[in-house]
Design goal:
alpha/beta, two-stranded antiparallel sheet, 6-stranded mixed sheet, about 20% strand, globular, 8 helices
Length: about 190
């Protein structure tokens, strides 16, 4: 899958999703929000309706699939039941599996590292973080849980929760556009 996409399902954590999109767009990344439904409107865990850039059918019709690069990123915000809704969508999980196998990057925050990335056959030896209480889902797949805000391990980026959304977005931006761009965005935020 070519490009950078953030996938939204009802019950997603709005801070994690939109802060990540904000960081990436500030850095010049053409990230697209994708509803996993036939409709573009997705409702957050706090009942905030958000209009995605595209519905899932539009994503499938307009996205180039095939060999990808590490700078091609699939992003999964947390929130419950948003993470569970993403994980329960087989078409998305099939795309995620293939994307990962081809060397594309997966980025997940909060519950999503365990619930969504936990759908992969194995996370053996990967250093990852997640929201408190979801650690066993990572460990059961062979990952090493580390209690840090954001963890980058090869083509997997994980974040701990909503309070780390800015750093999570900046870590993805660093991967795609480089440290200089991420530093410029960070300075513009007065961080």
């Amino acid at each position: 899958m070519k490009g950078t996409y953030i996938f939204l399902a009802d019950g997603f954590e709005v801070t994690e999703a939109l802060t990540t999109v904000n960081m990436l767009r500030r850095g010049g990344v053409n990230v697209k929000t994708v509803s996993i439904y036939d409709d573009r409107i997705v409702t957050s865990s706090n009942r905030i309706p958000v209009v995605a850039d595209m519905a899932f059918g539009e994503f499938r019709a307009s996205t180039s699939f095939g060999p990808c690069l590490p700078t091609d990123v699939m992003i999964f915000p947390g929130g419950m039941p948003g993470s569970s809704n993403l994980a329960a969508f087989p078409k998305l999980m099939d795309i995620m599996q293939k994307h990962y196998e081809e060397g594309g990057t997966l980025a997940a925050i909060c519950a999503a590292p365990g619930v969504v990335l936990g759908q992969l056959p194995s996370l053996e030896g990967r250093r990852m973080t997640c929201y408190d209480g979801f650690e066993d889902m990572l460990r059961s797949k062979g990952a090493e849980y580390v209690r840090e805000g954001v963890v980058v391990d090869g083509n997997i980026i994980t974040g701990r929760g909503p309070g780390w959304a800015v750093e999570f977005g900046l870590a993805i931006l660093t991967l795609i556009k480089g440290q200089e761009t991420a530093d410029r965005v960070k300075a513009g935020l007065m961080l």
